[in-house]
């Protein structure tokens, strides 16, 4: 590529690093955006700058929020005695789309993984244990993926909570082995929540 195309190559490379996009898809997106660089491209750039400047993580659950505490955590209509533990914000969004859970959430920010050297301290597990100890939590629902890392994480959390007198449950039927929560439809998530069972 010649010198003038380095910014284009950089943009393609940056997009290709996003989940679900490879070099070919990224190239198509960039070429399409270049056709309307004064329209859609600048609108997307402005939207990205606005998100970067205004969106923060909820100081309680880790959800995305415009304020220090997200609307779910401050809502008086949500049960303050139940916490649903999820891996990421996308899983929280999937649960909310299904409308199957009326409590509060706790986002771990990942899963335990020996291979990737991710232990409890790299995740928001200590913050979860503190919430359970201080907030009168009666039930913790483990809504983690049915993968090896997901089940390892669930087992670790359940073990930490076992001596605290807290009911620990996990999603029931409908979640396939290896299934990611944010890829499931609302009906499947609702059925799994209704049929949750003790861990």
SSE arrangement:
Layout: H1 6-16, H2 23-35, H3 40-54, E1 56-57, E2 64-65, H4 71-74, E3 82-86, H5 89-98, E4 104-107, H6 125-134, E5 139-142, H7 148-161, E6 167-170, H8 186-194, E7 197-198
Parallel strand pairs: 3-4, 3-5, 5-6
Antiparallel strand pairs: 1-2, 6-7
Helix pairs in contact: 1-2, 5-8
Written description of the protein model:
The chain has 199 residues and is α/β, with parallel strands linked by helices. Helix content is 43%, strand content 12%. The protein contains 8 helices and 7 strands. The protein has helices at 6-16, 23-35, 40-54, 71-74, 89-98, 125-134, 148-161, 186-194, and strands spanning 56-57, 64-65, 82-86, 104-107, 139-142, 167-170, 197-198. The strands form 2 sheets. A 5-stranded mixed β-sheet has the order 4-3-5-6-7. It has a two-stranded antiparallel sheet with strand order 1-2. Strand 3, helix 5 and strand 4 form a beta-alpha-beta unit. Helix 1 crosses helix 2. The chain is elongated.
Key descriptive features of the protein:
199 residues; alpha/beta; 7 strands; elongated
Question: Helical amount among residues, as a percent range?
Answer: 40-55%
Radius of gyration: 20 Å
> Biggest sheet: strands, sense, closure?
5 strands, mixed
| Count of DSSP H/I helices | 8
Structural class: alpha/beta
Helix and strand sequence: HHHEEHEHEHEHEHE
Low-confidence stretches: none
Strand order of the largest sheet: 4-3-5-6-7
Shape: elongated
Mean pLDDT: 88
| Number of strand elements | 7
Beta-strand fraction estimate = 5-15%
Kindly report how far apart the N and C termini lie: 56 Å
